[in-house]
Structures are given as C-alpha cells and as structure tokens.
Specification:
single chain, 4 domains, mainly alpha, 505 residues, globular, 5 strands
C-alpha cells in the first residue's frame, strides 16, 4: 500500500470506529433477552465454566460475540456497554474488508467511497448489532478477497484458497445467514480457478466446521433438525406425536404442505421485507426515509451495474451479484418470515453508491461529487442517530429495586428475565418458564428457581398482570404487590403457587 491508500484506509477505519462507538453510546445502552443470553454465556466463558459451541437452545449459531466479550468481564461489571463494545472491532473488520474488496477491482478513489458507505450505511446495524447477523457478514468481504481476488504468479495462492475456505466454515458456524455468500463464493471460484482451488476451499471449510460436526455427532442432527423445522414450524415433540399418530407418510405430507405455504408467504413478502430492511416503513423517521430511498436506488443501480459489468476482476462483482440472488432464493426456499434474513443484499449497496458517484464525477467536478458523498454520509448519520430513545424498559433500575426488596428469585417475560440475571451477575435468578416457557433458554436457572417456595412474579403487560391477579383470587392466594416504572411485581404470596395450574388453563 502506498501513502495515499494508507490515508484512505485510515479514514474508512476512523469513520467505522466513530459510527460503531456512537451506536454503543446511544442505542447500545439498552439490552433485551437475546443480548442478555450472549452476556450470560460470556460470563460463563470468562469463569471457565462453559465453552459452548452454539447459543443456548439455538444449535445453529456460534457465540463469537460471547467469546469476544468474555475477557472484558474480567475487568468490568456486566452491562450493555461492556457487551456491545465488541461490535467496534467487528465493524472495523468488516469496513476494512469492504475497502480492500473494492480496491481489488475498482480504483482507489472508488474503493475509499465503498469503504466509507460500509462504515456508515443507512442502516448501521439492521435488526441487531449482535446475535450472528452482523458477526457472520463481517467475514464475507474477506472470504471473497481470499477466494476470488486475482493475483498473478502468487506462490501463496493455494494457501489463500485454504484460508478463504476456513473463513467460509467459520462464517457458517457464526450464523447460517452466511450460506448465500459462501455458496456464491464457491460457484465463482470453481468457474474461475477450477477444481483444485475449490477442493482446497472445501477442505478449509470442513476444518472450520469440525466443532459443529462433532457437536452434531454427539447430539445427532441438532443443527439440521433446528434449521429444517423452521419452515413447517415443528419441534421434536410435535414430530414424534405426528409420526406416532398419523404415520411417516402423513407426517411428510403434512410437513411439505406447511413448508410450501411458508415459502409462498415468504415469496409474497419479498417487496415488503426489502423495503422494511431499508427502513422505509411508515413509522420510520424522515431521515430514515430519505436515506432508505437512496439505499434502495443504490441497490437497484448496483444490480444493474453488476449485471452489465465486463471489466477486470469480474469474479468479485459476480460473487456479490450471485449473493443477492441466492439470498432471495434462501428466504423463499426456507420460508423465512423476517426482513433480517435479507441482510446479505446490503453488501451490494456501497458498491452501487460508489459506481453511481463515479458516473456522476464524469459530468461534475470531483469537489462536487465529494460534497455528494459527504451529504449522503450525513443523511446516514441522521437516519441512524436522530432517534436514540431507549427501546427497552429500565431493567437496571428494576434489578436494583428487586435486590433492595430481597426478591432474588422469580418469573418474568423473556425480554426481562435474562437481562435481570446478567445485569446483576447472577445475583437475581428470573426465568420466563412461567409467562413464556417456550423461551426458557437455560434450564439450570429454572431448576434453581423451582426450589424456591415463594418466588416473585414480574409483569410489564397490564392485561397479563390482571389475569394473574384474578387467578390468585380464584385460588384464595393473597400477594403483596409493587409497582415501579410500569412494572407490576407480585411477591410474598400467602401460599405456594404451582405454576402448572396457570399454564394448563
């Protein structure tokens, strides 16, 4: 790299650092159930108690964020900031990868623009900063670089293919969302370099997936069963009941029917999911709408430009284009029902913006195009940070209140229960086994709670608390009741409550 390229990369990394840091200082101060699960796993890892292959009750997603956050818990108390701070190095890794990927087949100036729009896109962290989506996509630019970049006479080319394949396997372990770009990479690599390169990358992918394979040998089919049960919405218990009552043929027909319906609904939802991913829904801010419209046109322009591209290093744009196509196919085939599963299509947006500005520079002076870049970045900044309201209740304040009242054990909804455990470093033990038993992600906490005769019951929903109060009256059980910041807390009940009596109703 020459001095000007180093300067451009430094600018990209500076914007990426400031953007991710700003997110941590604003939206990263909140926490919800999934975040808290990652935090609790980080605590277990930091103490040497567990070294999990997958998230609790999610046998398809590798907890890389938990491993990255674990060392921080040696020095700092659990908090949303400590947990979310790992997004900073992840985002730097992604932004640098996008810069180098663009530099491999575009000019230096265009690569800098791609890097800047990757560092500060219209949707900085769509859906969630952690949980597999962001972490797995951070590897994609580096996968394409290692497996597809054309380097004449490179003696380390085959080692690059092996390393690229290893990153493919690692990204798949982090989250299955990496499946479309990984398949796109293998297709373009085989076409460009032949079978030897492809075999080396497959070998690297296999090596990275060895822990996952071993896990599925020890717990047969855990990952595949979890993934393939999503479209027909079946679990193991439902499967066994259907097979025993209706037979294997009826079960297969039943499953295929539900799968086909889910795929059909996902196909019809493609336009809505695309616009939703770009933050073009009615309840978005004005800045989000403006930025989303620009992002939408960048997506279309990028697709058009990549279809027509015939220049150098064609492997890379082809892989990005195939990634977008396969992502939509992946969504429909598996009947996925959320816009977040389209996140890989955002890979093409920085390139679409850069190529559009490159065309604009033909008619305008470069200073004017620089102003255009700065204006779009400013719009993206406003779209991301003009609304920084707390999205979740004050669980830290609730935790302090419960500790003061010595209500150390109890039941709460999923979005509330695990944050209470994490934020108090396991001093409070609250689980969703009563309100939302399907989201009971850690049975050890529930077993510990079951030994407590008079647990507390915490509600945020007024209707749910009214129903619970009515059921207590029916059983002639008198509770003490507290209200704090919208939370309704029942504690020190006059008699033992068997939660199964409530769940069977």
């Amino acid at each position: 790299m020459n001095r000007s390229e180093t300067r451009d990369l430094a600018l990209v990394l500076a914007v990426a650092f400031l953007a991710s840091l700003a997110w941590c200082l604003t939206k990263g101060r909140t926490i919800e159930g999934d975040d808290a699960i990652m935090g609790l796993m980080a605590l277990k890892i930091s103490r040497g108690q567990e070294f999990p292959v997958f998230f609790w009750q999610a046998h398809y997603s590798g907890p890389i964020a938990s491993y990255l956050a674990a060392p921080l818990h040696w020095f700092f108390k659990p908090s949303p900031m400590v947990l979310h701070s790992v997004i900073v190095p992840i985002h730097l890794f992604y932004s640098a990868g996008m810069y180098f990927l663009a530099r491999a087949w575009l000019g230096q100036r265009e690569a800098m623009i791609v890097g800047l729009f990757a560092a500060l896109p219209g949707q900085l962290f769509p859906y969630s900063a952690l949980g597999g989506f962001t972490e797995s996509m951070a590897f994609v630019p580096w996968i394409f670089l290692l497996c597809l970049e054309e380097r004449q006479g490179s003696k380390l080319q085959y080692l690059r293919f092996l390393g690229g394949g290893f990153l493919c396997g690692f990204a798949l372990w982090v989250f299955p969302l990496a499946f479309p770009p990984v398949v796109a990479c293998f297709i373009c690599q085989y076409r460009a370099y032949g079978g030897k390169a492809f075999k080396l990358s497959i070998m690297g992918c296999f090596l990275a997936l060895l822990p996952t394979i071993f896990y599925n040998v020890s717990q047969p089919g855990a990952t595949l069963l979890r993934l393939f049960s999503r479209p027909p919405a079946l679990d193991r218990q439902t499967v066994s009941q259907l097979v025993s009552s209706e037979g294997i043929i009826s079960f297969l027909l039943h499953s295929l029917g539900k799968w086909a319906l889910a795929s059909y609904e996902a196909f019809l939802s493609v336009p809505h999911f695309t616009l939703s991913l770009l933050d073009l829904e009615a309840d978005a801010t004005v800045w989000s709408h403006i930025s989303g419209v620009i992002t939408f046109f960048a997506l279309l322009l990028g697709l058009w430009a990549f279809f027509r591209y015939q220049g150098k290093a064609k492997n890379i744009p082809d892989a990005i284009l195939v990634t977008v196509i396969m992502t939509y196919c992946f969504l429909v085939l598996f009947g996925l029902n959320r816009d977040r599963y389209l996140i890989p299509i955002l890979l093409i947006v920085p390139f679409g913006l850069s190529l559009s500005i490159q065309r604009l520079a033909v008619f305008l002076r470069w200073r004017l195009t620089a102003i255009a870049v700065a204006s779009i970045l400013l719009l993206n900044l406003l779209a991301n940070f003009s609304d920084t309201k707390t999205r979740y209740p004050d669980y830290q304040g609730l935790a302090g209140f419960l500790e003061t009242k010595e209500l150390f054990f109890g039941y709460a909804p999923y979005t509330m229960a695990y944050p209470l455990i994490y934020l108090t470093d396991e001093k409070l033990i609250y689980t969703p086994a009563f309100q939302e038993p399907q989201y009971d992600r850690c049975s050890a906490y529930t077993v510990l709670l079951s030994k407590q005769r008079y647990p507390a019951f915490v509600f945020l929903n007024t209707l749910a608390s009214k129903d619970f109060r009515a059921q207590l009256e029916r059983l002639s059980i008198v509770p003490q009741e507290e209200r704090r910041d919208g939370f309704i807390i029942f504690h020190h009940l006059s008699a033992y409550v068997d939660i199964r009596l409530f769940q069977d109703r």
